Amino acid sequence: MAFKLTVDFSSLDQAVSQMGAELIEFDLESKVIPIEPIDRKLNEGFEVNFEDIEFDTGLASYQGRQVLLYIKDHSYNNKIYTVLEDGSKGNRFHVADCEMLERMRQKGRFDRYVVTNKLDGMFPVSGTDNRTNELVEGETDLSVCQYCLEATNFQKFASLKRGAPRRDFVQNFKLADFFDTYSSFFKFMPTGVASNQTSHYTKDWETVSKRIREKFNYQCQQCGLDLAQHKRLLHVHHINGVKSDNSDSNLTPLCCDCHRKQPDHQHMFIKHEETKLISHLRNAQGLNVKENWQDVYDLADPGIHGVIDLLEKYHVSLPEVGEEIQNEKKEVVAEMELAWPLKKVGIAIDKPEAIEATKLGWKVYSMRHALSQIDQLASSLR
After folding, report:
1. Distance between CA atoms of 335 and 348, rounded to whole angstroms?
2. Segment 178-209, tens digit of pLDDT
3. Domains of the chain: which residue ranges?
4. Cα 199 from chain centroid?
5. What range(s) does the HNH nuclease domain occupy (predicted)?
């Protein structure tokens, strides 16, 4: 049963007014993200059957969570000791559906993989000592699979020459950067990210942030987006990266999309609904202007950057970013991350929206298929 409150707060309001207290803006949307049992398990890592891992987007996922997978056992030829000393000698971990995993499928090798979304790069490994028959366990820093990086064209990896350039890239690879790039593809963030979203900020950060946003009239200082009606999408960025430096010269308001694209901003999880709203508002405010490929990069979801890199090399026409698809009732039923409306060709992140656009005569690619069928995609745009 619901009850209506009838308490008279007029006296309290009058007292507050006399005190000169400032009216504080607050958002009813909770920023606390509940941690489900599956999230705790993924942070620790556990074994699953390969068939239970999903690759709908091309990225490895488990129950709607972005994950990586690897084979924990390193028993062969007492390899465990070598791997504990040098993780680069061990089994590679996978972040996407790649050529190596496809070979495993074709050979019928469905090893039990460990799935995890722990982002520190350290992996529990084990192996049997062939001489003593004892189990040896420990942690080591395994390397990412190069085939996965090529399959996603992460940070233009496919353009790097084989050999030293690619080895250097792998050596400097950070899981947090990878998960951040594709965060809008998934509904849930890793627990390590959820627990550290507000770490290192000063205690008065909420007040400081509000003051800076008001000072700039709730406008993103990079793309120019007016977010006065959507204040939660406007962040305040520390220019020098030092979160304890709240001097005015070091603070600038950025929309969440521009903020996440700043250097060294891993662990910034942005929901797909928020990136869609940003695109919609940019279109409505006439800010979705594209004169060159760099403009497309700046406007598009970072998870699509690998596709954009290849399309630029094929010299296709510039796409629309955040194109909204309407049905016969003028209702928006889908949004394309990249679109060529005259060709009715698009690339979408959200599968249900891709299906709706297909019903209206569009040829829609996922990121996965756009990358693996780039020749066909480019040909259809000429």
Report:
1. 7
2. 998 998 898 887 765 544 455 578 889 999 99
3. 37-191, 205-266, 273-380
4. 20
5. 207-260
